[in-house]
Structure formats: C-alpha cells, structure tokens
Automatic annotation (TrEMBL):
The keyword Transport applies. GO terms for biological process: glycine betaine transport; response to osmotic stress. GO terms for molecular function: ATP binding; ATP hydrolysis activity. It comes from Desulforhabdus amnigena. The gene is opuAa. InterPro entries: AAA+_ATPase (IPR003593), ABC_osmolyte_uptake_ATP-bind (IPR051921), ABC_transporter-like_ATP-bd (IPR003439), ABC_transporter-like_CS (IPR017871), CBS_dom_sf (IPR046342), Gly-betaine_transp_ATP-bd (IPR005892), P-loop_NTPase (IPR027417). CDD domains: ABC_Pro_Gly_Betaine. One of its GO terms (cellular component) is membrane. NCBIfam families: proV (TIGR01186). This is Glycine/betaine ABC transporter ATP-binding protein. PROSITE patterns: ABC_TRANSPORTER_1, ABC_TRANSPORTER_2. Coiled coil: none annotated. Residues 45-281 form the ABC transporter domain. Belongs to the ABC transporter superfamily. It comes from the Bacteria.
Length: 416
C-alpha cells in the first residue's frame, strides 16, 4: 500500500477553503453492530478475516482525501473495491460507520434531514449510469427536473434547462422523449439535468459505462470540453483506468475498500501503486517511444512581436484561449502574451508587446521523449513550447495531450 504517496499528496494539497470537499478517516462496515467493531483497531485486519469472524462486510477502510474546487476527481477501482459505497456515503444515501465528510466547512455526517435535502438539491448533483430519466417527460422537462423540485417557476427553469441542453449539444431536441434517443443522447440529457441546477459538486457514477466504445470516447472528449467551460468540481467514478487517466486531474485508486493511491495521471504513470496499474502502464505506455515532435500541435494563436497590443488583445480575445505564443520574424520564441498583459499595456498607453510577455517558460526539443515531458508540464499553466536548437518555435503541447498520448491504444502508437 502506497501510504507515503497518499500522505504526500495530502500535504501537497495545502490550499484550503470552505468550498472543497474533504473525506476524513471514513469507514463503512455493513452488518450488525458495525460501530462496535471499530472499538478495536481494524486497520490491519484483512477484510476476509472480519467477514469470517463477525459476518460484517468491510466496504471502506479509513479513507481520507481532499478535493479542491474545480478539480476533476476520479475514483477508480475494479468491481467491489468500494467506489459506489464511497459516493453513497458522500451523498449520505448510506450512513458511514465512522469518519467525517466536510463540505463547506461542515461535517455533513452531522446534518439532519432538512440540511441533507438542501445539500442534495443545491450543492451536489448526480449523473447516473443508467441515465435516470423520466420516460414520460420530454428532454426539456427532464433537463429542468432538478429545478422543478426546487420550486422554480416554469419560465425560469426552462431558460436554464435550454442553456444546459445547449452546453451538452442537444439544442433542438427539447420536445423529444428519452425513449427515442440513443444511449449517448440520453446521457447528455442526464448531464444537462445536473448542469441546469448549477451544482458545486457534480457526482458522476460510471456515466459512460453503458455506452458503446465509440460513443463513450466521444462523450469523454465532450465532458473534458464542458468541464473546461463550466469548471465544476466533478467526482467521477469508473472501473476503467483508461477513462480515469484520460479525464482526471486527480485520481484515487481503490482496492478492497482502501484508497491505495491518489495522484495526478502523471504520478499514476510514473509511480503506479500496484501491479494492476503497473501492468496497464507498461502495456499501454508509449512513454519511451513517442517524442514531443510527434504530439505537438500548431498553437491556437501565434503573434509576431511587431503586432500592437490592441491587435494582440483582439486576437487573444477571439481565440478560445487567453494567451498566445509570440515569436520574432525568424520564428524565435519570445514568450507568451496574455489577455491581461496586453490590457495592462493598452491602459499604460504605449509599448511593444515584448514588454508584457511571460518569458519564464519551460521548453523542450522535438526529440524529447514523452516520459521526459511529465516533469516539465506542471511548471507552467500554459502549453509546453517545442523549439529547435536555435530557439525557433515549432509547436505547442497541452498538458492533456501528454496524458492522452500516453493512453492511446498501443496499436495506434506503433502505427504512428
Ligand atoms: N448493502 C450492502 N450490504 C453488504 N455488503 C455490501 C453492501 N453494499 C456493498 N457491499 C459490499 O461492499 C463492498 C464494496 O462494494 P461497492 O458496491 O461499493 O463496490 P464498487 O467498487 O462500487 O463495485 P461495482 O463497480 O461492482 O459497483 C463489496 O464487497 C460489496 O459486496
């Protein structure tokens, strides 16, 4: 068990704030007199021994982690590892045997019925594996359902539901009924229903596992895009390591009721906590084969140093990003111009865009191996710049691209 890893990660996550969710020393034991069992120290007693001696099932053992606002937190584990029990405890659909769950600085394990109802209506929202749609409600009414429960007026809830349906790409499908939609579309409705309520924490329980592989990939890509837009805190449960690595900003890997590792996808790759993860990583990993030059992309916006701050601000503004790479006329990389930086220059009234560049950027060469990109990526909030030996800008690599390249099908990598 990689306890050191868990502790390190917890120490590193020093950000504190009332909005984050924290699970502290959570235990769940199913069976009679479960609480009594915890009077003795069960930390090192195997699950099987507990079952044999007491007839009780240990589902969660001393779980602790913290989720920061806006994080995409994936709980990954094989069947029976305790994922569902954990999220049911977080929603208090079942009672933890011991421990606390802190949301907004409050231990929700102490909430009465009224506070729990409020939390489930306003703070959290759940997307289910089997969609959970009402078959006799059309798409719009399904998407508006969470708001109806809150008692919101029809006009207001429809407006919010329409907006959420647009976010998930279902504009124009409002009057259809769930039965006439494909699985992928039904799950979009499920997602829209959750987004419409604007929850702080979106909990998704294996939402794509009922979908066929192609649709599933498409939904994963779209969820990443949606998350980049709405920036919700997402707790996503899956038994698929590929999906976990693709989606998560942090992943908690569960086995036998324990969290055996918490880390970023990069950490899971470089320091897999158990044989299952290690095998997957070795099997799938093109880290020692793929190079930066193979996975780099053209930058979203490229500016030249002679462009004025106003033109630069405009170009950044109309792009999907809030930054742009800036090069000389010989294409040497100078740095990154940000929207705020250009704004400040304009307010000052003069100056070339060189004056307001972020220049402290990690760069790599086109032949840098994927495995050597891992330590570079977290050094900057911007994509990694690929340059040749003369400093000429060749392309950019987003953090997510690094991970996606790691988990592409092996065959695809070999054929690259
Ligand atoms: N109501 C219950 N009574 C007794 N044991 C239970 C109950 N619910 C779950 N368990 C046990 O708790 C353990 C964790 O189950 P859980 O359903 O949380 O796992 P999971 O990782 O979500 O699995 P799956 O992916 O198959 O849903 C298992 O050993 C399971 O048999």
């Amino acid at each position: 068990m990689n306890m050191g890893k868990i502790l390190n990660t917890q120490k590193e996550q020093t950000l504190s704030g009332p909005e984050c969710l924290e699970v502290k020393n959570l235990w769940k034991i199913f069976g009679p007199k479960a609480k009594n069992l915890l009077k003795s120290d069960l930390r090192n007693v195997p699950k099987e021994e507990i079952l044999e001696k007491t007839g009780c099932v240990l589902a969660l053992r001393d779980i602790s982690f913290r989720i920061e606002p806006g994080e995409f937190f994936v709980i990954m584990g094989l069947s029976g590892s305790g994922k569902s029990t954990l999220i049911r405890c977080i929603l208090r659909l079942i009672e933890p045997t011991a421990g606390s769950i802190i949301i907004h600085g409050d231990d929700i394990c102490k909430y009465d019925k009224e506070k729990l109802t409020h939390m489930r209506r306003y703070t959290t929202s759940m997307v289910f594996q089997h969609f959970g749609l009402l078959p006799h409600y059309n798409v719009l009414d399904n998407a508006a359902y969470g708001l109806k429960v809150r008692g919101m007026s029809k006009e207001e809830r429809y407006a919010k539901a329409e907006q959420a349906l647009e976010t998930v790409g279902l504009k124009g499908w409002e009057s259809y009924y769930p039965g006439s939609l494909s699985g992928g579309m039904q799950q979009r409705v499920g997602l829209a229903r959750s987004l419409a309520t604007d929850p702080e924490i979106l909990i998704m329980d294996e939402p794509f596992s009922g979908l066929d592989p192609l649709i599933r990939r498409q939904m994963q890509d779209e969820l990443v895009e949606i998350q980049e837009k709405v920036k919700k805190t997402i707790i996503f449960v899956t038994h698929d390591l590929y999906e976990a690595l693709k989606l998560g900003s942090h992943i908690a890997i569960m086995r036998n009721g324990e969290v055996i590792q918490i880390g970023t996808p990069e950490e899971v790759f470089t320091e897999p906590a158990d044989d299952y993860v290690r095998d997957f990583v070795q099997e799938a990993s093109p880290a020692k084969v793929l190079t930066a030059g193979k996975i780099m992309k053209e930058p979203g916006v490229l500016l030249y140093e002679w462009q004025g701050p106003k033109a630069a601000r405009h170009m950044i503004n109309v792009s999907e990003h809030d930054y742009a790479f800036v090069v000389t006329k010989h294409h040497e990389l100078l740095g990154i111009a940000t929207f705020d930086g250009m704004n400040a220059l304009i307010r000052k009234g003069s100056g070339s865009i060189r004056e307001a560049l972020v220049t402290d950027l990690p760069t790599c060469g086109p032949n840098t191996l994927l495995e050597d990109l891992f330590p570079l990526a977290p050094l900057s909030p911007y994509p990694l710049a690929v340059t040749d030996e003369k400093g000429k800008f060749l392309g950019q690599i987003r953090n997510r691209t690094i991970i996606e390249s790691m988990i592409r099908d092996r065959e695809e990598v070999v054929n690259d």
